[in-house]
Design goal:
binds zinc ion, mainly alpha, 15 helices, oxidoreductase, iron, 69% helix, lipid biosynthesis, 388 residues, two-stranded antiparallel sheet, 2 strands, globular, Acyl-CoA_DS
């Protein structure tokens, strides 16, 4: 099915970290548990430290450095760098540059470093175990990171930093909990393995399981259960179409602890310029997909040309025209806005602004109405198809 992968030499450091250490854990932990009980504190340390390392990746490596979805003060950068180092996923520079390549060439078997089209195993972990050309770092896409002092410091001293961060976190926690070995094994070892696979799921399962409400031009999916496991990164379909948004779960009710954390940082003055895609663009993408799905459903149900289905078909076509009209209105408004700005007459801009705001609002409202109507039509259509 998939083309065979190119031959590539084994990366022994990755094999040590991702295969050897988990095997040691599988043997050592049950042996230890036969003679000792893990304290409650050691179990809690595992969950808390899983959060610390995973959020370092999601809020730091991913949304701050790979996507520049917000700006962080230096103290926050240092904090996120320490948290991310604790997750042992290579340096920010390497990770973020590779991730930018993933977005740029998503699903391409030769250029996406963790293309799902090379299979689950490859996208999950296999891509790291050998030195595949696709995963070779190419820092041409990261000139901003090459200038970032925190990023470059971490890249230069990565290995000693990994050791120092582990000692600085695990020893005091073990001491506080009064169960040094328990914390080392659960908060250290098991936590590290869990935190690795949580991130790897984003590259594997988040490109396999779930819905595609915003785009079907790539394999990325939205999946609530994966969002729970991945600190909010499971809304991966949204993320692949609007990668610069600091939110992955864009709806206020969607479970995305990373977006809440970034928002909280901004309230404390540690983060600013949180980037949000305008709601019109989000609705537009969502509605365009709904029409696409409606067309596909029609192709399935449409054989049975009852009167109901014929009517629904006609109504959907009318709705689509209305949708296109709304998009045209929107484009015209945008054009007017640009013209007003060019005219640069303060008074005029002010008048235009309030008038346009009103009209923008009307257009957005119409878009929401189209969505409602379409939902209703699709429900009727499916009901009709079932009863026939
Ligand atoms: Zn992806
Ligand atoms: Zn991303």
């Amino acid at each position: 099915m998939n083309a065979p992968l190119p031959k590539a030499p084994i990366n022994w450091i990755a094999v040590f970290a991702l295969v050897f250490i988990p095997i040691v854990a599988l043997i050592a932990i049950p042996l230890y548990a036969m003679n000792h009980d893990f304290s409650a504190g050691a179990w809690i340390s595992m969950f808390v430290l899983l959060g610390v390392s995973s959020l370092g990746i999601t809020a730091g490596y991913h949304r701050l450095w790979a996507h520049r979805a917000y700006e962080a003060t230096t103290p926050l950068k240092i904090l996120l760098m320490i948290m991310g180092t604790f997750a042992v996923q290579n340096s920010i520079l390497y990770w973020a540059s590779g991730h930018r390549t993933h977005h740029r060439h998503v699903d391409d078997v030769e250029q996406d470093p963790y293309s799902i089209n090379n299979g689950f195993w490859y996208a999950h972990i296999g891509w790291m175990l050998r030195d595949y050309p696709a995963a070779e770092p190419n820092y041409k896409n990261a000139p901003d990171l090459l200038k970032d002092k925190v990023v470059m410091f971490q890249d230069k001293y990565y290995i000693p930093l990994v050791a120092a961060v582990h000692a600085a976190i695990l020893i005091p926690v073990g001491y506080l909990v009064g169960d040094m070995w328990g914390v080392m094994l659960l908060g250290g070892l098991v936590r590290l393995i869990l935190s690795h696979h949580v991130t790897f799921f984003i590259n594997s399962l988040c490109h396999m399981w779930g819905k595609r409400p915003y785009t079907d031009e790539n394999t990325a999916r939205d999946n609530f259960w994966l969002a729970i496991a991945t600190w909010g990164e499971g809304y991966h379909n949204y993320h692949h179409i609007f990668q610069y948004d600091y939110r992955n779960g864009v709806k206020w009710w969607q479970y995305d602890p990373t977006k809440w954390l970034i928002w909280t940082f901004s309230k404390f003055g540690l983060a600013k310029n949180l980037r949000r895609i305008p709601s019109f663009n989000i609705k537009k993408a969502e509605l365009a997909m709904k029409f696409k799905y409606a067309q596909q459903d029609l192709a399935v149900y449409g054989h049975n040309m009852t009167e109901d289905i014929a009517t629904a078909k006609l109504r959907i076509a009318q709705e689509y025209d209305a949708f296109s009209q709304t998009l045209n209105d929107w484009a015209k408004l945008k054009e007017q806005e640009i013209q007003a700005k060019k005219a640069s007459v303060a008074e005029k801009i002010h008048q235009m602004d309030s008038k346009l705001k009103d009209e923008f609002h009307q257009v957005e409202l119409r878009l929401s109405q189209h969505r409602e109507t379409l939902n209703q039509l699709m429900r009727n259509l499916k009901k009709g198809a079932v009863s026939n």
